[in-house]
Amino acid sequence: MTFYCFFKTNNTNMTKRFLAIVACCLFCVTLFAQDPYEGSGKNSGALYEPEKIVYNSTFSFALLTDLHIDVNNSLNSEDLAAIIDDINMQKGLAFVLVTGDVTEHGDRASLEHAKKLLEKLKLPYYVIPGNHDTRSTESGGTDFKRIFGAERFRLLMNDYIFLGINTGQIQNSGDGYIQPQDIEWLTRQLKIAGKKRPIFLVSHHPLKNGDVSNWYEVTDVARKYNIQGVLSGHYHRNFMDNFDALPAVINRTMQRGKEQKGNYTIYAISDPIFIIDKAHQEEAIKWGASSLQPKGYD
After folding, report:
1. What are the residues whose beta carbons fall under 8 Å from the beta carbon of 116, sequence distance 6 or more?
2. Residues 6+ apart with CB under 8 A from 142
3. DSSP E strands: which ranges in 189-280?
4. Which of 1, 94, 105, 296 is the most exposed place for a label (fewest CB within 10 A)?
5. Could you give the CA distance from residue 203 to residue 231 in angstroms, rounded to a whole number?
6. pTM for this prediction
7. Could you say which DSSP state residue 47 is in?
8. What φ, ψ does residue 82 adopt, rounded to 5°?
9. Per mean pLDDT, which range of 6-15, 113-122, 264-273 is the poorest?
10. Secondary structure (3-state) at 29
11. CATH topology of domain 38-290
12. For the residues 221-236, what does the mean pLDDT come to?
């Protein structure tokens, strides 16, 4: 923002005093300006607290990925509506992560429809795009940010930090790609978090060769910090992995596929971390666990 001031005075002291006041105001505006990439969804995130680590601070959250909403195909919308209903009935969930491929084609109508459905969540939700949201779109992938407000997020929950980044493809390029400004943002957030605080990275693509062309630019930086897991989608199935020494979890698609209902994932953050598969009005099935302990390599 630029301020223009026009005045005429012969009083030198008054002029100096006026300029000092203007400079102070500009400094305050800069100091307290909000990061436009704080978050997206109903909750814009939280500021970091002084470094106080509590590893046994128990909480749970839900994760949805690969929704592939299409205004011309109602099946996935029906599955999402049922899952949202199930999430709203759960007790103890703190928030919801939506990790990309929100739509099938990235068109404005489908993005707006997906947002309308997600707004029915009673919990804060945080969303990032996937390759289906950014490639081959008339807007060049910019509609996602216009509709959801951001393409990345940061969240502090009980001394745990969640950092979501955009790995969506640029037009019809083969692999996912992380923009330089997003890597700069992530690097800054990690430095602010410090080496001890437990951190989860959230992306659509797995951060490895063949999925993200510049994956190493993230893993080289992140390995120095206490990364408890990289949470991703893209492969439409559940399994645990390791990305360049970073523990990782690939999460199943929300789509029902050959099953009767769509599914989502619940993470119970304790020691160990439990990973749970859940369908609408079905019993939760625990399928994975990960130890919760300090990590990081200097």
Report:
1. none
2. none
3. 199-202, 227-232, 239-243, 246-250, 263-269, 273-279
4. 1
5. 6
6. 0.82
7. P
8. -65, -40
9. 6-15
10. helix
11. Purple Acid Phosphatase; chain A, domain 2 (3.60.21)
12. 96
